[in-house]
């Protein structure tokens, strides 16, 4: 099936930064077959014609870090540090099960889709013993909403009795976590070019995971040919704990455990020395920059300009919905520019670089730079068509500035591999009313779960 998007502004985000103020994109099946300036060549055979007048087409946005289950636990610990926030939420997450995770992930992915996201990485690391097959529930939510999912099988094995932050009843045994991760890869990982689901390996963070799990995870991922993901260098608290326990910074600790390389992407990387930035660049280790979450938790501003200059891949992430209740990607485009300039001055990042981070930068982090992230013939047809002709954007001088700096535009169309996921700003793959009803039920379950075990109601006394 051919789809022609015509009379449209195009930002290809290719290596040359090619843009067309009046251009076209042609899709055949799941693949982009042509892009260029001027009207699309006349076509006589059957095809779908999309008049893109007043619109901008960009590559679909790529989200490199999320915790979709948290879509059911938003609004807690609103004014807390990361460690306080986690300590308040761990008891709530003890009630997680496959049903809650499926409802939360479906709703969170729906939110991502209507903000132009066509590929999302999700880091799921809380596996209560009675929770059923949460990983399958996550993957099925991805298939239901229809955007590409990089499902990271996370894990924690370092409870409080071993100096970790999570309660002991929320962590797994080291070997059990590795076994379950290998099973997740075997059941769900698809290495194909057009994969809708890939699996990565993701022990949660240095303060919730033993060094044995970190090294075992790296060995497993490399044996299976999948990618590695974890949180690193997010807060000063984490750095102080790492220095006290290991006598080195989080980045040095990661390197010691085999966790730097071009098959690794790290969430946050806020607190990095100059040496650490150079090591990430030299090893092509990726960073998932999550500016809204970093602002919500007041953790600091990541050195994105320095990382890019060092040659490290950097993508954008919304992070978990419990530390970014918005959960949309357009907001991160804008935030990434604001934070880069607050840190490094007005020349630290251009707004077009923000779009690069949200597309090609993310594709590099996920190892999919040959498949997605730019509009080029041969790449998968993951496209976002933004309406800029309404009262919020009409007349704005530059369509890319309208997307990055202006209000979030409505989506005329979102294609994933040529398949319509959003049209006229509405999700077409699942009824929004169903998603909302399931989410309400899931949140209510968690908030009433085990009330004597330390859960708390948002806004309640504690
Ligand atoms: Zn996170």
Automatic annotation (TrEMBL):
Keywords: Hydrolase. This is Cytosine/adenosine deaminase-related metal-dependent hydrolase. It comes from the Bacteria. Pfam families: Amidohydro_1 (PF01979). The keyword Hydrolase applies. One of its GO terms (molecular function) is hydrolase activity, acting on carbon-nitrogen (but not peptide) bonds. The keyword Hydrolase applies. InterPro entries: Amidohydro-rel, Metal-dep_hydrolase_composite, Metal_Hydrolase, MTA/SAH_deaminase. Residues 56-420 form the Amidohydrolase-related domain.
